[in-house]
Amino acid sequence: MQDFDILIAPSAPGFAPLGRRPGDPLFNASWTLLGVPCLNIPVPLGHASLPIGVTLIAARFADKHLLDVARHLESVLNPK
After folding, report:
1. Does residue 43 lie within any of the structural domains?
2. For residue 58, what are the domain limits?
3. Rounded to whole angstroms, how far apart are CA atoms 58 and 77?
4. Number of domains in the chain
5. Which pTM does this prediction carry?
6. Is residue 55 in a domain?
């Protein structure tokens, strides 16, 4: 991670499910086991479908850095 600001990975296999039930958190297990900060955000695809989840992952103990980068990426990944 020392050569990267953050990693971007899919949050779950597939799109958000319909209704109020959560998606499959399978892809987040690795980040949880590593103890690194991660932030899941929805990214719209530009049409009427549900968003796809994206996880931003930072180096261990870089929580503030992750939030700063996420704030910057918000306008890029989720334009209004």
Report:
1. yes
2. 7-16+23-77
3. 17
4. 1
5. 0.81
6. yes
